Amino acid sequence: MNAVAARLSWRRLPAHVELVSIGIGYALYAVTRVLAPHRAVVSFVHADEVRSLEQSFGLFHELRINEFLTAHAGLEILSSYYYASLHFIVTPLVLAWLWRRRARVYAPLRSALVLSTALALLIYATWPLAPPRFAVPGAVDTVLDHPVAWATGHGVQGFINDLAAMPSLHVGWSVWCAVALVTGLRTRWRHLAWLYPVATTFVVVATANHYLLDAVAGALVVGLPLYLCGLRVRGQALVAAPVRTAPARRLEPERLPQPQASLG
Asked: What pLDDT, on a 0 to 100 scale, did the predictor assign at position 237?
């Protein structure tokens, strides 16, 4: 497993290289998500399957949570702007903090974020899912009523795929942020970071953008790459597992000819 982590957790690069590579990666993510098949009919079939599965376990409460949100105007506005913007602010800030202040754990965490996003894109392309705002009768799209200035509410115009609900990367990236903070900090208060994915899960479900199972899938899509990249739970702490590398070759000093004893 250490060998796998070593291959997946490529080394920390200079800031400008990391910035350019992550920017290119996000651009590819956005374009790939848009170009993923928009298969409307099958996405609604998948929505019925997700809803039936949740109902069988007594977990289908999306409409009730959405109704609760719309009954509280202040919370609705806060949640809608939370959904539309915080996702794109917190993750880059945590990534930058890791690069600058926590170089020891930056590589595995950054690599896990990249791999989880790529895995999510694969699922978007092969398993389209209509979100509750489309597929659940009576659900209100609160985000569309409160768009940020540069977006429709769900993303920059022309750069969104409305049928890419499974998994929820809003939840996935928030879980990644919590893991990064818990791993990188040593204060006793660091575990408050887990409130971020909890709040994000409430927001994505309450705004009718995701099912509860989308949130679970988002956490799993991030959890697997984190494990593969060497993050482990030790006691009460998250740590980056040491990665074994080939020992450095020891250079022996050249043997110089010994001076011969004088016979004279």
From this structure: 54
